[in-house]
Amino acid sequence: MAVKDYVIAPSILSANFAKLGEEVANVIASGADWIHFDVMDNHYVPNLTIGPLVCEAIRPCTAAPIDVHLMVKPVDRIIPDFAKAGANIITFHPEASEHVDRSLSLIRDAGCQAGLVFNPATPLDYMDYVMDKIDVILLMSVNPGFGGQKFIPGTLAKARAARAKLDAYEQQGGRRIRLEIDGGVNTANIGEIAAAGVDAFVAGSAVYGAGKNSDPHRYDSIISALRAELAKT
Ligand code: DX5
Ligand code: ZN
Fold first, then answer.
1. Residues with beta carbon inside 6 Å of ligand 1?
2. Residue 2 has what pLDDT?
3. What is the number of the ligand 1 atom nearest to the C-alpha of 207?
4. What is the mean pLDDT of residues 123-134?
5. Which end of the chain is more exposed for a tag (fewer CB within 10 A), N or C?
6. Residue whose CA is closest, atom 6 of ligand 1?
7. What value does the mean pLDDT take over residues 198-218?
């Protein structure tokens, strides 16, 4: 796969929240592709983060796609709010939705790309009967709730299995569906993750941690280091 087809999506969970607009603009100016936006509700996951108001506030700070990862239950109520707030991609955890097909349709009907997120212990079967409604599959390589956790190695085999399902779908006349990974991604493991068939990479602490001592915060060297590893694959 050409390096330019890979997506790097820094998670703003590890950004400086007092300067969020700048952090968003700077990470994109440093070469990142998407802004990964982690929504946690202190119910589906044991942490509380940001909602549509913050999405709306950062929307004018970049033209890059905003990739909203919903870790909330219920799911449907909040989908139109994020679409109105400027989200481009909205993903959710199938266990958190009463009706997976309907939640995917709600996202598409609101004009966004839709996706399912799989926890480390969630089987991939959820995608089988809704492939036509999916634009992205997000595999968790940590248990959701917090940034800065360690990559779970078993996710590599799961990524290969997911890639095989997505390739089979494409070969049968379907569209290309992105395979995104989230949790513990860094320069040491991004190459083997790409080799397992992943083409979009969320990285929170690895990216924002690398720039926090520069002033203003710049992320060029970490983003190019991640791309250099991808170029080797
Ligand atoms: C975890 C979040 C991730 C997290 C990634 O629940 O979904 O997006 O911020 O952070 P790192 O890259 O630090 O694991
Ligand atoms: Zn996430």
1. 11, 13-14, 36, 38, 69, 142, 144-145, 147-149, 182-185, 202-206
2. 72
3. 12
4. 97
5. N
6. 144
7. 91
Average pLDDT taken over every residue of the chain: 97
E strands of 1-84, at which residues? 7-10, 35-40, 66-71
Cβ(31)–Cβ(224) below 8 Å: yes
Report which ligand 1 atom has the smallest distance to the Cα of 143: 6
Ligand with an atom nearest the CA of residue 147: 1
Report the C-alpha gap between 115 and 110 in whole angstroms: 13
How high is the pLDDT of residue 213?
A: 78
Mutate to test the pocket of ligand 1, among 205, 207, 222 (most ligand atoms within 8 A of CB): 205
Q: Quick check: pTM over 0.90?
A: yes
- Alpha carbons 112 and 56: distance in angstroms, whole number: 15
Domain ranges of the chain: 3-231
Q: How confident is the model at residue 212 (pLDDT cuts 50, 70, 90)?
A: confident
pLDDT in tens, 172-196: 999 999 999 999 999 999 999 999 9
Average pLDDT over residues 102-112: 98
Which architecture characterizes domain 3-231 according to CATH?
Alpha-Beta Barrel (3.20)
- 172 CA from centroid of ligand 2 (Å): 30
